Amino acid sequence: MSTWKIYPIHLTIIEILQKKGSITDEELLEMLKAFYKEMGPDDLNKNLMAMEISGLIHVSSLTKGKRLIELKRGFQQDRK
Known about the structure:
By secondary structure, the protein is of the alpha+beta class. The protein has a single domain (about 10-75), classed as Winged helix-like DNA-binding domain superfamily/Winged helix DNA-binding domain (Arc Repressor Mutant, subunit A, Orthogonal Bundle), CATH 1.10.10.10. Helix content is about 50%, strand content about 20%. It has four helices and three strands, in the order H-E-H-H-E-E-H. The chain has a three-stranded antiparallel beta sheet with strand order 1-3-2. Strand 2 and strand 3 form a beta hairpin. The longest helix is centred in the middle third of the chain and has 13 residues, at about 40-55. It is globular and about 35 Å long. About 10% of the residues are buried.
């Protein structure tokens, strides 16, 4: 039985994108696995879809099977 994470995945994704700017889905998944051990591609896709529908991020296709994820402009201003 796994324990629940207190910090939501979408907030972790936003923090990573604020630090990195843009990132591929493969790199993002590897970074998220450090915080969420049971994170898989299906979980990532579910979260990315919800965040894109909400207008938080933009996902574009780089090559077949590889995507680029970036924050929408309104959320990038928090970057330091």
